């Protein structure tokens, strides 16, 4: 579904990505791991087109994304849950969900408000609450629901559970498993390695803008050297 090849990105003349290679197949959960500042968010933003690539290729369902505006790439079926959630503070929870709702791919059974509330029942109770009055956990659930309302083929989560209480993190991981069960491919960045490895089909570790390791969850569990050297585990 997604194939990233030799992706190079610069910020204001400084090189941030050094030939990133990454693949996601239909229905897979794939993680992008690494310490802070190693290029995870830059990789995500370059894939989507928020940050322009200097060179390389990003192919999504056979369409080359490099050089296209990010909104056109999103319309191909990529839903982003950004780091920091970035919900609209002065819109109600319901307005946040419907503001960007779309079905560009003509999905037969698209995501609806009730579908999102089935995934996150807590949100239904806060339907009229303004975005800035929601808790961190509620905002993260809302950010995921908002991305789902665009009916993505690929859901991208940047720091899926950062700063959340253990109970809320558990709900997020359960929701990700349910979303995956509906055939949506998922690319996720997070620091909760134990939870990630339970659901991930494949893992990529990035260090200083380069992919330095890739493999299955079991392979990563067994590779103590990689865990220590690249993730500090």
What does this structure look like?
The chain has 233 residues and is α/β, with parallel strands linked by helices. It has one domain: 3-Layer(aba) Sandwich (Rossmann fold). 36% of the residues lie in helices and 26% in strands. The longest helix has 16 residues, at 166-181. It starts with a strand and ends with a helix. The mean pLDDT is 95.
Short structural summary:
This protein has 233 residues and is an alpha/beta fold.
Please supply descriptive tags for the structure shown above.
Rossmann fold, 10 helices, 233 residues, 4-stranded antiparallel beta sheet, alpha/beta
Question: How do the helices and strands line up, and which of them pair or pack?
Answer:
Layout (H helix, E strand, L loop, with lengths): L1 E10 L2 E11 L4 E5 L6 H9 L6 E6 L2 E2 L5 H6 L2 E4 L11 H7 L13 H7 L1 H4 L11 H13 L5 E5 L7 H16 L3 E5 L3 H7 L2 E6 L2 E6 L1 H6 L1 H8 L2
Parallel strand pairs: 3-8, 3-9, 6-7, 7-8
Antiparallel strand pairs: 1-2, 1-4, 4-5, 9-10
């Amino acid at each position: 579904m997604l194939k990233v090849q030799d992706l190079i990105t610069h910020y204001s003349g400084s090189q941030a990505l050094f030939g990133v290679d990454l693949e996601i197949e239909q229905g897979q959960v794939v993680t992008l791991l690494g310490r802070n500042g190693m290029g995870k968010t830059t990789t995500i933003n370059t894939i989507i087109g928020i940050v322009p690539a200097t060179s390389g290729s990003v192919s999504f369902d056979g369409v080359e994304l490099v050089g296209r505006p990010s909104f056109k790439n999103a319309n191909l079926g990529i839903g982003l849950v950004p780091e920091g959630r970035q919900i609209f503070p002065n819109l109600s929870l319901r307005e946040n969900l419907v503001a960007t709702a779309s079905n560009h791919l003509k999905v037969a059974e698209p995501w609806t408000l009730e579908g999102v509330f089935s995934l996150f029942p807590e949100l239904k109770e806060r339907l009229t609450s303004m975005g800035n009055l929601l808790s961190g956990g509620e905002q993260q659930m809302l950010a995921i629901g908002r991305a789902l309302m665009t009916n993505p083929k690929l859901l991208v989560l940047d720091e899926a559970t950062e700063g959340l209480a253990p109970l809320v993190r558990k709900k997020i991981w359960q929701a990700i498993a349910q979303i995956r069960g509906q055939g949506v491919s998922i690319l996720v960045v997070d620091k909760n390695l134990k939870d990630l490895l339970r659901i991930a089909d494949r893992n990529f570790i990035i260090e200083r803008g380069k992919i330095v390791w890739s493999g299955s969850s079991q392979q990563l569990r067994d590779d103590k050297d990689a865990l220590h050297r690249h993730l500090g585990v």
